[in-house]
Amino acid sequence: MSKHILKHLAIIMDGNGRWATKRGLNRTKGHEEGAEIIREITTCCANHPTIETTTFYAFSTENWKRPKLEVEFLMKMLDKYLKNELTTYQEQNIRFQAIGDLSSFSKSLQKRIRETEELTKSNTSLTQILALNYGGRAEITHAVNTLIKQGKSRVTEEDISSALQTPYSDIDLLIRTSGEERVSNFLLWQLSYAELYFTPTLWPDFTSEEMLEIIENYQQRTRRFGGI
Ligand code: IPE
Ligand code: IPE
Ligand code: MG
């Protein structure tokens, strides 16, 4: 049996809060630890022979429901993360892209995101997409409205796929950490035939070794896409 090629990996990074609470720490400490893991996983993906794109769920359209202080912390952390990561992106030839509605973010954070995209746009080893203020339903609705604005009165699946924000739409493998077994409004359209893997590991404890084991598991699966 030939091994499935893994091109697009999506990750729901969950469990930062529980990781911190378990240690008697503030939830924000869990987010800080979590950010370090993104770096490790990204580097591992950039060196992987077949992965072309990774999409990480960093902030959902529903995460605004969290306490104001936690939301503010996450925004500051994102800005700091992108500022620090620029050297890594350039050294490792990684292209950064964001998906989601950035208009709710501060002007300076929007600028940081756009600049990071611009400065890394010619990098080719990996495209790292961060989903920021992202919701799958919002993305599909936005795509349909874009098509209506273009004058379409009937749309095809291809039309919708190409109007989505995610540059390479189909996900091969979705990993969610922390034991929750749901998609929480992530990439609803792009996940239609993805293989799903749920691990109890909390995101700050996730490692590249575990990811490589999960990829090994993915490669043993039978992907039928409706065929036999
Ligand atoms: C994921 O960890 C990070 C974000 C959603 C920003 P959580 O903050 O959801 O951690 P838990 O689920 O509360 O443990
Ligand atoms: C999903 O995690 C969103 C991100 C990881 C950014 P949540 O922790 O927000 O999801 P629910 O609320 O448990 O479904
Ligand atoms: Mg959570």
Explain this structure.
The chain has 228 residues and is α/β, with parallel strands linked by helices. It has 7 helices and 6 strands; from the N terminus they run βααβαβαβααββα. The protein has helices at 16-22, 27-46, 68-91, 107-120, 136-149, 157-163, 208-220; strands at residues 8-12, 53-60, 94-99, 126-134, 173-176, 195-198. A 6-stranded parallel β-sheet has the order 3-4-2-1-5-6, with helices on both faces. Strand 3, helix 4 (107-120) and strand 4 (126-134) form a beta-alpha-beta unit. Helix 2 (27-46) packs parallel to helix 3 (68-91) and helix 5 crosses helix 6 (157-163). The longest helix is centred in the middle third of the chain and has 24 residues, at 68-91. It is globular and about 55 Å long. The model has no long low-confidence stretch (mean pLDDT 95). Residues 12-14, 57-60, 63, 180, 182, 184 line the site of one 3-methylbut-3-enyl trihydrogen diphosphate (IPE).
